């Protein structure tokens, strides 16, 4: 199975990786959940505390997310994250779509569906702040963001730039766009139990992609769609074995897919270019419609004037002399009048 998956990764034209919290477990040196008993934090159920409607200025909300930020700042990306980053750099994979909020996949060719806990913003003025600032204050600009940039003090309440319960995942349309372009989808460390994210690999499968799963437990939610799987083994061990097979007998600088040019960055650029063209096309159509509308209005006016001339005798001839008269359309001059 390892050889099959390694060959698929080497030969695919576009590989997208989907990751979940299973890939970050070995990064945790401390566990903020030690203060959480049966999904309750300081007597508040997490389903309520993590809801989009919970008061962002509540001390329990603030302390809970400060604890998470503290944990992530003390931890570091593990070997699995480093291997995936190496694969991105070598173009073995094109894009990482992650459900994690820790930011351990870096910023290159990554879609963070649930946001990033290292980033905060003001619910009032939308100014951005980092987690270091949030540890000191949950109010907008009671100081300086990053201690360098000073913003107008609006005293709004900050919140983490993550998807809370009841909110829609970020960049779903872009993720779906890349799913349709993928011929291999590698699922790592997630049971794909959250909708609508678990629909992404299914849509890729329906477009002809092969699904590969690496997880501690079998992925039951989309089991019928998975082509190849490695279950029950340590995720880091699995990725190291695959990495060795991919690199076997190769120069490290030559481990790239043959004629591979569609990186995730280019795909994203093409998507934005396509969207821009679509908007421009709509604008051009509106312009054409507008021109026809104006032209039609002008022709109608000409028609009405001619109709008035011939039906109401706006212009008359008497004794060989041309006369004009007043009508509802306006005043037609008396052509026989030569006064200055």
Kindly summarize this structure in a few lines:
The protein is 37% helix and 17% strand. By secondary structure, it is an alpha/beta fold. The chain has a six-stranded parallel beta sheet, sandwiched between helices. The protein has a three-stranded antiparallel beta sheet with strand order 7-6-8. Strands 2-3 form a two-stranded antiparallel ribbon.
Q: Can you put this structure into words, describing what you see?
A:
It is a single chain. With 340 residues, the chain is an alpha/beta fold. It has 9 helices and 15 strands. The chain has helices at residues 2-11, 46-49, 59-74, 79-89, 131-136, 172-181, 199-206, 235-247, 264-312, and strands at residues 15-19, 40-41, 44-45, 95-98, 110-112, 115-122, 128-130, 158-162, 184-188, 210-215, 228-231, 315-318, 321-324, 326-327, 330-331. The strands form 5 sheets. Strands 5-4-1-9-10-11 form a 6-stranded parallel β-sheet, sandwiched between helices. The protein has a 3-stranded antiparallel β-sheet with strand order 7-6-8. The protein has a two-stranded antiparallel sheet with strand order 2-3. Helix 7 (199-206) links the parallel strand 9 and strand 10 (210-215). Helix 1 crosses helix 8. The longest helix has 49 residues, at 264-312. The chain is flat. The N and C termini lie far apart (102 Å). Residues 29-37, 251-264 and 325-340 have low confidence and may be disordered.
């Amino acid at each position: 199975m390892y050889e099959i998956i390694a060959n698929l990764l080497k030969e695919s034209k576009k590989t997208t990786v989907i990751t979940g919290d299973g890939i970050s477990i070995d990064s945790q040196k401390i566990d903020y959940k030690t203060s959480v008993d049966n999904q309750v934090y300081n007597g508040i159920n997490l389903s309520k505390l993590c809801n989009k409607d919970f008061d962002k200025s509540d001390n329990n909300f603030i302390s809970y997310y400060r604890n998470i930020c503290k944990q992530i700042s003390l931890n570091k990306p593990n070997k699995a994250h480093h291997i995936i980053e190496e694969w991105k750099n070598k173009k073995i994979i094109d894009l990482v779509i992650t459900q994690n909020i820790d930011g351990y996949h870096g910023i290159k060719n990554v879609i963070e569906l649930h946001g990033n806990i290292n980033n905060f913003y003001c619910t009032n003025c939308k100014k951005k702040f980092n987690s270091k600032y949030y540890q000191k204050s949950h109010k907008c600009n009671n100081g300086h963001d990053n201690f360098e940039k000073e913003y107008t003090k609006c005293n709004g309440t900050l919140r983490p730039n993550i998807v809370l319960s009841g909110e829609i995942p970020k960049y779903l349309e872009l993720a779906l766009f890349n799913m349709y372009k993928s011929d291999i989808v590698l699922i790592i460390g997630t049971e794909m139990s959250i909708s609508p994210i678990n629909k992404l690999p299914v849509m890729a499968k329906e477009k002809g992609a092969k699904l590969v799963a690496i997880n501690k437990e079998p992925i039951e939610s989309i089991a019928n769609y998975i082509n190849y799987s490695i279950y029950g083994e340590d995720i880091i061990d699995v990725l190291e074995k695959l990495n060795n097979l991919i690199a076997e007998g190769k120069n490290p600088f030559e481990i790239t897919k043959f004629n591979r040019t569609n990186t995730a960055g280019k795909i994203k650029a093409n998507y934005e270019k396509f969207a821009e063209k679509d908007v421009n096309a709509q604008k051009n159509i509106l312009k054409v419609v507008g021109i026809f509308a104006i032209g039609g209005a002008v022709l109608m006016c000409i028609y009405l004037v001619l109709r008035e001339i011939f039906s109401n005798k706006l212009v008359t001839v008497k004794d060989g002399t041309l006369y004009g008269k007043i009508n509802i359309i306006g005043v037609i001059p008396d052509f026989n009048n030569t006064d200055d």
